[in-house]
Amino acid sequence: MNVPIIRVRPEADADIPVPRYQTDQSAGIDLHAAVDAQLEPKQTALIPTGFAIALPPDYEGQVRPRSGLALKHGVTLLNSPGTIDADYRGEIKVILINHSEQIFTIRRLDRIAQLVIAPVVRVVWELVSTLPQTNRGSGGFGHSGI
User: Fold this and answer.
1) d(CA 45, CA 74)
2) Domain for residue 145, yes or no?
3) I want to staple 30 with a disulfide (CB 3.0 to 4.6 A). Which of 67, 80, 111, 123 is the partner?
């Protein structure tokens, strides 16, 4: 599937790589930071990527954390996954949070998140008086064990 992509600031961000898959079987496309930033412990920051996309109808972009940043540095996405709707045309930005006790430095061009493109199924609600029964019923939040 071809998806249009633009550099939001072509002159300033010409060095930022176009997001791409790192391996033949990668589900996520790596997103790079368009700025330098520092995240203090427990701080959040909105990090621009320098790109905007035009997803086709009935698709979404899911912005997800990079596992290496989470494991090695305690840095992840605050809203995970973040959703890019098919009709959004603004710059892709990533909400990072530093869960560690150390200052974390983001350098321009660092890979900070990954983007997964996925189909969207739209529903039409049917208001009914009861729901079909299942063995599980309304059990949730640990009802089946730890």
Assistant:
1) 14
2) no
3) 111
